[in-house]
């Protein structure tokens, strides 16, 4: 049931990896980079394999095995191996589904018109060493996936977590309720204050009135006292 297997930096024994056999029928991706492989003679039959990484080994030939045992390959990385001439690569013509081939850091790349020769020899491939014939870079499926995840994250951020707006509304309602209560309180206090002020003014008026009456009575008393005195003086005169 394994579909992906990475054996990078393991050590091969007599050109094979111990435990890698025909039982991996569902395998679609296999990576054996830097495992000191000298040939592919002992590669098991992997009919569903689509991507094969064989970089940084010492493979110099015998590529015809790939068409027999991995007929559905679409991607093959042979960079950093001992491949020197076009005759070695010619064996890949039988990989009819092959779309991408990597021969970077192999001696064959030093040949004159290397790229044109490979594209002419293997007409089924679209990308050589990561670029097509027009020097357009091959798309990276992992980068595409990451971009898709970023877009999803942006959408989620824009949309906001569910319930957030509801909470905000509740807070606003609570604040408005408090505001109304405060207004009512303020109105009640100011109303009471006005009443108290009016009561005080009435009391002052009353007190002032009483003082005026008392003063008037005092004046009258003085007049009464003076009148007899004045009369007595007149009699003496």
Automatic annotation (TrEMBL):
- Pfam family example for this protein? LRR_9
Location(s), subcellular: Cytoplasm; Nucleus
Compositionally biased intervals (Acidic residues):
131-187, 197-216
Q: Which GO terms describe its cellular component?
A: cytoplasm; nucleus
| Family matches, as PROSITE patterns | LRR
Location, primary (coarse class):
cytoplasm
Which GO biological process annotations does it have?
chromatin organization; regulation of apoptotic process
| Basic and acidic residues: compositionally biased ranges | 217-228
One GO molecular function term of this record is:
histone binding
Keywords, A to Z, come to: Chaperone, Chromatin regulator, Cytoplasm, Leucine-rich repeat, Nucleus, Repeat
- Sequence segments annotated as region (Disordered): 130-237
Known function: Multifunctional protein that is involved in the regulation of many processes.
Q: Its family?
A: Belongs to the ANP32 family.
UniProt name for this protein: Acidic leucine-rich nuclear phosphoprotein 32 family member
